[in-house]
Every structure is written in structure tokens, then in C-alpha cells.
Design a protein that fits this description.
20 helices, single chain, four-stranded parallel sheet, six-stranded mixed sheet, alpha/beta, Rossmann fold
Length: 614
Amino acid sequence: MNRTLEQILPKVQKPARYTGGEYNAVVKDRREVDLRYALCFPDTYEIGMSNLGCRILYGVMNQEKGVWCERCYAPWGDMEEAMRREGLLLYGLESGDPIADFNIIGFSLGYEMAYTNVLNMLDLAGLPLRSEDRPQLTPLVVAGGTCCYNPEPLAPFVDFFVLGEGEEVTLEYIELYRQAREECWTKEEFLQEAARIPGIYVPSFYEPVYHSDGTLAEMRIQEGSGAPERVTKRVVQDMDKSYFPVKTIIPSTEIVHDRVMLELFRGCIRGCRFCQAGYVYRPVRNRSPQLLAQYGKAACEDSGYQEMTLSSLSSTDYPCLLELCDDLLDYCAPRDIGLSLPSLRADTFSMNLMERLQRVRKGGLTFAPEAGTQRLRDAINKNLREEDLMQSVRTAFAGGWSGVKLYFMLGLPTETDEDVRGIADLARKVYFAWRECTPNKARGVRITVSTSWFVPKPHTAFQWDAQIPVEEYQRRVDLLRDELKRDKSITYNWHDPQTSYLEAIFSRGDRRLADVLERAWEQGAKMDSWSEYFDFDRWMKAFQDCGLDGDFYAHRERGREEVFPWCRIDPMVTTDFLWHEREKCYQSQTTPDCRTRCSGCGANRLLKGGVCNG
């Protein structure tokens, strides 16, 4: 270990975040490695180590001969201060070597509020922030993840973005990099070839052109760059052949999701109109239950974990769920290993499923009705009836559960005060269902209602809609709080509006926001998803300094023909389909799920044979 690091670690919180050396961490002989990759997660160790996508990419790359992928996380404030004071550059956890000396630095982007951490980590590594100020081939700075479906706010800082699933395309651009280095290409020559790889977006090859009113006129392709008209996301065709991290790194300190995570399938059959993941992760591709059971048992044996989570956007939509649960529980129950399903749909929760889940131990139950009335649930295409929700909570309460969490959004398109009050009415109905069905009233009941502020996202049916003003959001929070305050068994939590406002800005923003990001970072912005560090006034000053108005991005409705900053990105769900879904929202009409009837979204074009297995 670096001697400077040895001196720092006893003086910071949670030093295990920064030491490496965990069980199953991959350490390679530098003499046998010709490409080094820093896999960076722009948040703390506890958050980044819980990310399944990073675990997958780490394993995929380290399987390759000559490639060494190391992990790197954003240091907490006390560690960053010590690193800057002692001149210690940001380093890879496996080797302790500065990541600035690596060939490729890759960031995983899942949340807009982590953008300032990307800048902060580049600076801590001793690298210039902007791509144009890093003219050499090494190191390349790349990014992938859900946020890359609108890459523009980070475009000046990143050499290229990876769209969609990274297992295959990552190895492709690694091989291209090796060729470029061997043949002494310039960075520009490499980027021109990289842009030909499906799924890679090179932002320097696209120039935004604006109208006088500040709206986007076009994303002009640089002449001679060879960049494609649209960059199509990458998907793994066969989930049974895709890599799964059975031998995952066991953390040296507690992390957020400290358990085995089994990925059941990718995609979603539902088509909730607000849900970006539900659209951009299409088409649906399942893993076989036999393979999942094999992975789950092997991962528990290797790690010693006592909890397993079945992970997906909507786990109860997995067609072989009961079969898989039976197989896993035969293994888990005798070993006291808990089995949990974090993403339950109320209309698919059954007595059969409940009996299986409680064989080892009962976890909490969470349902997301999203809206308080049937009219609004139909408008957002939640395809959930109140009677289905009530039947599910009755089943749970009769089975001995005494706690339910209910998640909703405020500010959805077409929402009225009646819909807001409907949340309180629904929560009270859940309480009365407990009184009616519980076998043990003495234990009491815990009903938690949580609301977030709706953020319109790119590539959804609501990408044209405005976010409601912050004052209106707060009024609706106050209305619901007043409705619920007399119900002692119901706890109400609501999301901070200031971060949701910034999320709306950066999720639909253009390249001009890069200046705001850099200005906010210069003024101290970092760890913006943590209340200890977030400073809204600092952000407002950054917008003022750059002459931009956040409301222009967050609170403005778009017209059908407006050009979006993400117009060159193709998730293979068509714009015509999304617009039609928006029109159906305003008529409170639903679209059936993919298993009931194909709605022609276009995502099946990505699959060989053109047939989803939803």
C-alpha cells in the first residue's frame, strides 16, 4: 500500500472504502497486462459496490487475457481533503496506481445528480476536465448507463458514450483501442473508427445549432467524421449466454445491497408512460429458471451471503417465478437464507407467492400504485386496478405481514387535487384492510406513503411534458400531508423538490448545461445526491453566472416537432409510438402489456427474428 495512503486512512471515516484487497477482487501481474481499465462509479463505495451492472462489466473485462479492470469510487469529503492536501491522485482499488496512467477510464452513469462527481473524480485524477484538453489517445474517458440516453450535458467532458448494454460493446472498443495503439493512431482517428461501432456516440462529431429563442434547431453531423445519423443502443440477444458474476467481490465494509442479486430478465412488458427504464431497456429477454437457480446457489456458496434478491424492473412478471422460487427455497430454507422480491406488482402478488416468500423470513412489502385514482393510473398506463391492490394487501395481512410501503408520484400529467386526495383515501383503505384481515391486531401496522416529484424523462411518452413548478409541487405535498395527518398508523414521506428540479433540468438538457456543471463544481458542488453536501443556492448561482434559466429546461412543455438534444440517440422505441402513448394519456386510455398484445413500439427490431419473449 502507498505510504501516503497508510498515513491518511486512520484519520478518515470508513477507511475500508479505500483499501481494496477484498475477497474475489482481481489482482493481475502488471507484466502480463497490456490494457488497464478504471471502472469508475461517481458515488461512494457503498453505492457503487451495490451496482450489478458494474459487477458484470468488472467480470467480463477481467476474463479477457491482458485486460485488467480495476474499481474506483468517489471519495467522501474527508478522504478527498486528505488526498488533495497530500497530493495523492485518485487510484484504482486493486493496484493503488493512479487512474490517470490507465488506458481507459469508464464512468457508470445512473443518476443525474452524480454528474459533478464525474468532474471531481477527473480533477482528483489530475486530468483536464474537457475532452478537447486531453488530445492524446491515452487515457480515453468513456461513459455508459441510463443517463447516456441523453448524453449532451456531459458531452464536452467525455470522449464517447456507450448506449445500452455494455457486455459486448465494451470488449469491441477495447480491441479497437489495442489496434489504435499498435498502429499509432491519433485520438481523432480512433474516435472516427469507434463511431462505426454500433452503440457508440462520439459527441464531438455532432454540433448543436440553436434557434434565437434558445430551442435546438439541429444536431449537425461534423463533415467527414463518418458519424451515423442515429446511434442505436446495444442489447444482449441471449440472456442465458450472457455473463453473470457468480464470484462477486465481497465488500470489506457494509454496502447498500449486501447480498446475492439474481437478474431474472431485462426489459419490461408494462409500458408505464413515465418510466424511462421501461422503454429504453426493451425488448424483454428472460433467463432460464434452471440457470438462475444454478447461479443463485453457486453465488451463495462462494460468498457466504445469507440473503438473495430476485432483481428486475418487475420481478413478479417473470413467467417462471414460482418454479424458480421453489427451486431456490429448497436450497435457501435449510440454510436460513432469505429470498426477497423488491419490485412487486400488486396485481401479480398471490397467496402462492406469499407462502413461498415467508418460508424463510418475512421482509417488508412494497407496492408502487404511483397514482391515487384509477383515472390517473389509466392515464399513466400503470394497468393496476384498485381491487388488485386491495386483494394483495389483504393477502399479505392475512399471511402475517404488518407493514406495507406505498410509492406514488406527484405532478404527473393530468393530475388534479382529487388525484392527490385519492392517495390518502387509498392509504386509509389499506389500513382498514389490515384491521379486517390481520390475525394479530396487537402487533399494530406500519403503512408508509412516500411521494416523489415527477420528472419527465427522455425517450418516454412524457418527454414533451413540463414538470410542474416547485411551488405547485409543495402545495400538493401540503394538501396530502393535511389529508393524512389524522391517520396515526400512516407515515408520510416526500422527496426533496430541489434535487428533482435539477434532475428534470439535466435529464432533458442540452450541451450548454456543461458550463453550468463546471461552474457549480468550481464553486464546490459534489456529492449532490447527499444532503450533507447539496447546496441549491450554489446551483442557482451557477445558472445565473452562465446566463441560463433552469425553468427553460424543467418547466417548459415541448411541441411535437421540437428537436430534442437526444435526437441522435435511438433506443429503438419509436417517437411516433411515444407520441401516440402521450395522446392516449390525455384521454385516460390504456395500452395492454406486451404479453397481452404487441403494441408495435419498435424494440423487437433489435432481436434476431424480431420476436420478444416477454
